[in-house]
TrEMBL record:
Domain Trichome birefringence-like C-terminal intervals: 1-271
GO molecular function, one term: O-acetyltransferase activity
Protein name, as recorded: Trichome birefringence-like C-terminal domain-containing protein
Pfam families documented for this protein: PC-Esterase
Family: Belongs to the PC-esterase family. TBL subfamily.
Length: 277
């Protein structure tokens, strides 16, 4: 089960594409119910699942369909509502990053959504991230049996919004980029918040339950060419020709093409699984 945001969904889609070819037609199915999407392969009694929880803890962005909320508010200590859906699977793959990058501070609810509370405190992004991953790590340590379940945490997936970041002043975001960043001696700064990377790395290293930290960040930073760009979906539909002609507005430089980079992330995952089986 992949748990997290749309980048983890991107990796889940990659995994489904990679494994589905072994299942004969009519012996595989895909079902979505609320936050949970389940791909099932009958002949192997196996499922590959995705659970939508962009902050891992409760937030006002938890609706799997209506979550495009600019004023994002989280409850850093509230994870049980989501967590009860993650138990007793063989492999858990977590991530949370891109939804943190909307603002420099994070809105933390005072009280509970259930009580109708609306007041919040604004705290620095790394402080809030640390609180959330601490809540998550406590949940994993308490609820995961490491003899049954192997836990992974993916580092942040970078975005390529500003072509100046790779010294292309004439570029429009990641549109029309056809090669990776080839200058590996160049200091890469594509907007990745390394503070969150350090927090995730430190917390996952100091847990009771072993967590495999999958470092996808640096290699992905070079792949300015690998995003869906104008060949993407908005609100369930492919971009129109008019929208495709306006990459400055519509190019998606966050998500990745398939086949593509998320397949490499899954090769990392596969290698870890095989090495420990």
């Amino acid at each position: 089960m992949f748990v997290g945001d749309s980048l983890n969904r991107n990796q889940w889609e990659s995994m489904v594409c990679l494994v589905q070819s072994v299942a004969p037609p009519g012996r595989k199915s895909l079902n979505k119910s609320g936050s949970l999407s389940v791909f099932r392969i009958e002949d192997y009694n196996a499922t590959v699942e995705f659970y939508w929880a962009p902050f891992l803890v409760r937030s006002n962005s938890d609706d799997p369909d209506m979550h495009s909320i600019l004023n994002r508010i989280i409850m850093p200590k509230s994870i049980q509502n989501h967590g009860k859906n993650w138990k007793d699977v063989d492999y858990l793959v977590f991530n949370t990053y891109i939804w943190w990058m909307n603002t420099f501070t994070m809105k933390v609810l005072r009280g509970s959504f259930d009580q109708g509370d609306t007041e919040y405190d604004e705290i620095d992004r790394p402080v809030a991230y640390q609180k959330v991953l601490t809540t998550w790590s406590k949940w994993v340590d308490k609820n995961v049996n490491p003899n049954r379940t192997t836990v992974f945490f993916s580092s942040m997936s970078p975005l390529h919004i500003k072509s100046l970041d790779w010294e292309n002043p004439d570029g429009i975001k990641c549109a029309l980029e056809t090669t990776p960043i080839l200058n590996q001696s160049m200091h890469l700064n594509v907007g990745t918040d390394r503070r969150l990377y350090v927090i995730a790395s430190n917390i996952t290293q100091n847990m009771k339950v072993p967590v495999h930290f999958i470092d996808i960040t640096s290699l992905s930073e070079y792949r300015k060419d690998a995003h869906t760009s104008v060949y993407t979906i908005r609100q369930g539909k492919m971009l129109t020709p008019e929208q495709q002609a306006d990459p400055a507005t519509f190019a998606d430089c966050i998500h990745w093409c398939l086949p593509g980079l998320p397949d490499t992330w899954n090769e990392f995952l596969y290698a870890r699984i095989i090495a420990h089986s």
